Each structure stands twice: as structure tokens, then as C-alpha cells.
Amino acid sequence: MKHISKEVINKYLKLLPIQILGIVVSATNSLIDSIITGRYIGSEALGAIGLFAPIISAVGFFMILITGFEILCSTALGEEDKEKSSSLFSTCIFIAGLLCILTTLICVVFRFPLSRLLGADPATEVLLADYILGYSPGFIGDVLMAIMMIFLPLNGDTKRSYVGIAALIVSNVALDLITVIFFDMGVFGMGLASSVSYILSALLLVPGFINSEKMLRIDFKLLSFKPVAEAVKLGSPNLMFTLGTVIKAYVLNWALMKSFGVSAIATANVQNSLCSFLGAVPQGCGGTFLVLGSLYFGSRDKKTFSEAFKFAMEIGIILSAFLAILLMAGSYLISSFYFDKSDPAFLMTRDMLLIFPSFLVFNTVLTILLRVYQCQKRITLVNILSIAENLMIAALAVILISIMGINGAWYAFPICEIICILWVAIDIRLNANKGDDPVKEWISFGPVSDQRRSL
Fold this sequence. Notes:
By secondary structure, the chain is an all-alpha fold. It has helices spanning 6-40, 43-50, 53-59, 63-78, 82-109, 111-117, 122-135, 139-151, 158-182, 186-205, 228-260, 262-278, 280-298, 302-329, 331-338, 344-355, 358-375, 380-404, 407-431, 438-442.
């Protein structure tokens, strides 16, 4: 870190906790909701809420738009164009809010047909419909809070981000208990508690963007829809990644169930639960670099851009390696927390936790590398790898399971990440501007065509 400026270190460390906490808090709220539902309402209600997961994931498609505007807005900030950056930010808020309202209306009006479409049987259909009625109004708070948390630190109001996070956790737990225990509102109360907590937390963040002296402000007079197409293009890797994740999950579950039964699926569920928390490191490190990298790209500051890239890599590798070692060291204890030692899933989970965690380190490296492409608006390879990464994991898992048993599924994850990193390395060697250091020349601020060769 000797050759990295204090400015880069301070800005990165200022943004990183917000990025990581945003992901962790969402996962924590889901875990708390599950515990309270299972404890006070029952397993049938918990199953009904679980059926709503695909819709919650579908709302994640809004990240296509959000990520694109994040890049454009950060670039405008780097250019010190206050009006343009506020216009982009306001347009993102407006479109995201409108899409959330439309999604809420559709979910509420068609909640019973939607419940049946999601697989609810007659016993859980009413429960799921009630949960949809309570939860759907909170979409707008969830999405707008995610957008504002990204930019509050750049607007000089980091403390407000932490206030919003604290308010979200405290209000969600309190309202869960109040609606379920004191008012006996069942799953509708659980959904309503989530909605109110998201909306309340989002409202607490809004004052950070109403001061005209700030670099970013909400001003709907500045709305411009011309950048929407470019924002969607820049955010398209989120769509590719989501599609690949869905296919990977289906294929992996099919292969595990067919070869090893329910115990293997239980182990995969443990892995998925851990990933919802652990993924905060690669996604947080990558997201933080995306904001800073776009900022420095906008100001054409190649030196500082390179420093931010190096620092993101160093911090990302340290954090992910620490978590990987922690998981491996605690594999026995974690497995015993989920399963009895006589359960076949216990040994499967222990072995999974000794093999899978190395994936975190390689995934962090790959994520940051791909964010460099996104900052430079070179999207082709990012789109390819965003879906190819998950498809390769699925294919490798099927092949390796047939060779080495269930552990082959867990080896597929780190092996695939290594292949993808090599893919990027070859692309850098072939497509970077020629020079003594291909990596430095790869970080190019000159006119870049997305039609350049991509492997």
C-alpha cells in the first residue's frame, strides 16, 4: 500500500463498510424474519413466505438500471458536472420509484393468481397472498434506500447511511414482534413490518439529497430520459448474472438430488445461506471500486484509478482470505450447528466447508477485474462472463460429481473462478494497448470500442 495515496485509501474505506453492510443487513433481516415466523407463526407460514423468494429476486432486476446509473452518475461527479450528476441521480430515483409502484400494484391486485403461480397449494395460498399484500408496498423503500446508500458518502453524509441501516434493523425486529405477538396479524403483519421498516429507513436518507449545495440532489426538474438506454446497457451484466444463477441453482440441485438425495440438498442450502452473507465481501469490494473507479474515470485520472484498483484488490483478497480460513477452521462447529452428527448431511456440510470457501478469494479477484471493464464501459466480456461463470460452475459440478462424488460439486466453484480469471488475463494480453506492462496499458482512458476482440 506504499504507492497508494491517502485520498484513495480514505475514500475506499469510507465507502466499503456501507456497501458491505447494505448486503449483510438485507440477509440479516431475512434471517430474522424466518426465525420469528417459524417460532411464533409456524412452519407452514415459513414455507409460504419462502415461495415469495422468486418475486423478491425479480425486484433485484432493477439493479440493471441502478448499476448503470451508478456508473454514469459517478463519471459525471468525476467530471465535476454538478447539474448532470444530479439529473442522472434524480432520473434514477424517479424511474426506480415508478417501477416499484407498478410492481407493487401488480402484486397486490393479482396476489391470489400469483400465489398459485408460485406453487402455493390450497393450504398456503391464503397465507402467501396475505404476505404479498403486506410486503409489496415496501419495494419502493427497499430499492430507493439501496440507491441512496451508494451515494450518501460521496455527498459528504456517511453518518446518515449508518442511521438508515440501524433504523432498518431495529424497526424491522420491533415491528415483527409487535405485529405478530401483540396484534396477532400473522404473515400479513410480517410483510407489513418489512414494508414499514424499508420505507421509514428510506425517508431518513432523503434529507441527504435535498440541499442545493450538495454535489448530488433530488430535483425532478432535471429529469432526462436520454441516458436510460446507456444505463441499461451498462447494468446488463446484472441480468446475465441473475439468469446464470437461476440456471446454476436448478442444475446443481438436480445433480445433487439425483445422486445423493435430500441430505445433499440440505448441504447446498447451508452453502446458499452462507453465501448470502459472505457474498457481501466480493460484491462490496467490487461495488466500492465501481463507484470510485467511475469517479476517477470521469476525471480522466488514470494514476488514481490504478491506485484504487490495486487497493481494492489488496483489501478484497485480505478480507476474503480471512473469511475463507475462518470457515475452514470452523467447518466442524458450523456443521454441528445445522445437523446432528449422525445425519449424513453433517459430513457433507463439513467437507463442503473445507473445499468451497477458497472460491471467495478467486471470486473477489474476478469481480474487481470485471468492474474495471464496467468503469471503462466495456461491457461485452462482462456480459459473457456474468452468465458463463454460473453455467460453467453447473457444468463442472455435473462432471466432477460423476468423477469424485459430492465433493466435486464444491470443487467446481473455485476451479471455475480460476478459469474465468485466466480468461480475463488472456483478454488483457490480447486487447490491451501495447507496452511494457500490459495490465497498466489495459486500464485505458482513450476511446475504447466494445467491438474489440473478446475471448
